[in-house]
Amino acid sequence: MFKEKNIIIKNPLKSDIRFGLVYPNVYKTAMSSLGYQIIYNYINEREDSYCERIIYPSIRSLETNSPLSDFDIISFSLQYEQDYFNILEILKEANIPLRREDRTNEDPLIIAGGPCASSNPLPLSDFIDIFVVGEAEAVLYDFLDLYLELNLSNKKNNKKINNRGVNFRSKRDLSPFLDIQGLYISEFNNNTEIALSEDMDKIYHLTYPIVSETDDKDFIPAFSNSILLNVSRACTRGCRFCMSSYLYRPLRETNLDYLFSIAEEARENTGLNKISLIGAAVSDYSKINELTNGLKEKGFQVSMPSMRIESITKETLIALKSSGLKTLTIAPESIYSLRCRINKDIEDEDVFRVIGDAVELGFNIKLYFLIGLPYETQEDICQLASLMKQIDSMKYKFNSKSKTSTKKAKVSISFSVNPLIPKAHTPLQWETYNMKDIKLKIKYLKKNLKGLDIKFDSAKMGLIQYVLSCGDREIGNLIEKSLNKKISIKEWGENAPNYTLEDKLPWDCIDVSVSKEFLKLEYEKIKNSQQTPWCEDGDCYNCGACN
């Protein structure tokens, strides 16, 4: 049995705009996306619009079982590059022309948003009409207002033409949308400036989330049924591999008291007591201990999917433990010397401190590591294996008197090892991806870390993701070709880019406010492990985001 509470039902026939909100991945992932749920509620607050959800692999809406072709606008959420294949599959199954040049004003308008759309829209630009670069609240209402205005004008013109016995099917004119900041229109390859909401207290906060009622694990959201509390947006730590560190700057925080009121209102609307704190680096929130303690006092169970090691205190862990959190997730990334190269100056002592406190409090621990970092050597991989073994040994309770450890683990410690994927608009956008090197390193770690609870991402999938992340418009041909034929890893490799600092990059038309000059300086700093300290604690580095 599968039920949902708090879904929005309207009469589609009375809506001027039917908006199909497509998540090109499975339900449990879709309904754990705060952005996806925000857009659903945000659009449905308009009386003239009805937003319905379509979640892969379905091509019909959850609300009215309508086919995709019934919608005026179809919007894809681009969270992961691997979902690009699902997007084309959905369009194909729905009998909607794949390529924008083959669609007319009688077909739905195809748009897309999310971090991948803001970072590098080029690989999908032959299939998507308009990309939203930035945050939905800063763009969508202006976009919908203009769509309605243009649609009304087109209907009047069509009526005149059809009265003369002419069948009206022509290409839609998208040029008026060029005047809206934050819209990249594929046809024009226009220079686009990111659109962001300046004040977190004025953005759309989710107080009426959808709650699923089911015993089917495939339909239980990744964070389970919980209130998704938008604590902050952006991260300015500046980890040189991380897209979140550069895309949405500057850092913006929601007022503490406002967060409490949002949580209370959401609980009234759902009956839920569990809260997931959402943000690029939630533990960096300036009043994190006041927030977690305050929510605990109000009877909430708090989870924190994203935590920075250097900002985790024992006080924070105690508050999270007492509120019901069971698993702590952190990302040491690599050994200390390589952490410094990627601007993550976290001493091993800090890593051990947090893990030690977490073990003492009874947390299960999940750790994320990267391989394939710039200047990484085989000796570094050997040291990484030693570090992981040392961390794993910390799950056993240590007796300080006898100086021995118990054989029974007090908690579970698991590891995830992933290839580093260079991303657009980061200092590593000029790096390449060496699949052969990654495979050898995975092989070594598997051999030397037997007995550890460890998962490895595929080196081959890493290559594909790299091509999709940093490729140009031509990569769209590969994505389309994959609908009918398996693309060999050799062909993916042949299409892997190899940029230099002097090259014009495919995504140079997208201005995310962080300057290319700043990213070049950061890239050069990797060579000698030079740090760029957190600007929230010190000086401004003139990255461009606050200009």
From TrEMBL:
Domain Radical SAM core per the UniProt entry, residue ranges: 221-455
Keyword DNA repair on entry: no
Record-linked SUPFAM superfamilies: Radical SAM enzymes (SSF102114)
GO molecular function, one term: iron-sulfur cluster binding
Keyword Iron: yes
Keyword line: Iron, Iron-sulfur, Metal-binding, S-adenosyl-L-methionine
Protein's UniProt name: Radical SAM superfamily enzyme YgiQ, UPF0313 family
Lineage, highest ranks first: Archaea, Methanobacteriati, Methanobacteriota, Methanomada group, Methanobacteria
